[in-house]
User: Fold this.
Amino acid sequence: MKTRLIFTFFFSCMSLLSFAQDNKEVEKEKWKYEPNFMVGFDVLNLGASFFSDRQLFQGFISSRIKGDLHAVAEAGFDKNIYQKNGYDVKANGPFLKLGAFYMLAKDAENAFNGFYAGGKAGGSFYTQEYMAVPVRGYGGSSSSVAFPSSSQSSYWLEGTLGGRVQLFESDFYIDVNLQPKYMIFTTKQDDIQPMIIPGFGKSSSKFNMGFAWSIAYKF
Assistant:
């Protein structure tokens, strides 16, 4: 009987030690975020601002969360005018976009090099002014009316498809991406569909396309 009790106690202790060791291994395998950041600024649209009516300044900050998944935040300021089909509109204001992307293909030696796809939610809080809005008058005559400056807001969903490549052996990268956009909600002044939305672009429809060519630095 004593022998049986001794063996039972011995194997019980061994089982507890084994279970504790397994728990330690599981804890070691748990995910732990390691701080890493990449900050970039769109130089393409900045350069184009000197030769067009649009002045767009935008940048981003991203961080690899786990594996090939990266979180990203973009912010900027956009100023533009719309003069077409009798409309004369100007708008300006800041915008913010939050989302994530996944590395579809990457360099085996550098996880930040490669192609990615993802999505973001964007919003803009801006000021717009209608200097002229076409209206049809009596007998088919056409004229225009003006509206005072007002504060508006718009919200959209945005896809992202692009790639990153390291510049030589430095911490600098080139980041290029396409941004298909779909408007989900916008406020209106006197029920007039906005012609310009900072961060979204110049468009009278719900769809638009953006493009960014950025120089980024990895911390």
About this structure: The chain has two domains: 1-30, 35-218. The domain at 35-218 is CATH 2.40.160 (Porin). Helices lie at 2-29, 43-48.
